[in-house]
Write a structure and sequence with these properties.
Strands 1-4 form a two-stranded parallel ribbon. By secondary structure, the chain is mostly helical. The chain is built from 4 helices and 4 strands, in the order αβαββααβ. It has one domain. 40% of the residues lie in helices and 9% in strands. It is globular, with a radius of gyration of 17 Å.
Length: 116
């Protein structure tokens, strides 16, 4: 399900999935981009920003909205991270679909429609 920000897509999708007894997959959240669970420590990589050079620091939505020089090219890093996480969520949904029925919130390729 795609659409504008803050129009109620998530709540509608939850209700739709519940109505048809399907699994609901929530949208990809920004926190997923920076919290690493695979190591077992569940740390937020943004906590290391003060220890590393500016060029390798995290670039989250807060920095994106306040960036006075988006021409530096770091916004592409953020977009690739979102794409990767959406793809991983999509793979989880496909795995579920192979076993049952699924309702997936957003297809990972949908980001391309916002580029034009």
């Amino acid at each position: 399900m795609d659409g504008n920000i803050a129009v109620g897509k998530t709540e509608f999708a939850k209700q739709l999935a519940q109505r048809f007894d399907l699994k609901f997959f929530p949208p990809t959240r920004e926190k997923q981009l920076f919290v690493r669970h695979s190591t077992g420590y569940n740390y937020d990589t943004r906590g290391f920003d003060s220890l590393v050079p500016e060029g390798v620091q995290s670039y989250d939505l807060k920095k994106f909205y306040s960036d006075s020089h988006p021409d530096r090219g770091v916004v592409g890093r953020l977009q690739l991270m979102w794409y990767r996480e959406k793809f991983m969520d999509y793979l989880l949904a496909l795995r579920h679909l192979a076993n049952t029925g699924v309702y997936y919130f957003r297809e990972y390729l949908s980001s391309e429609m916002f580029l034009g």
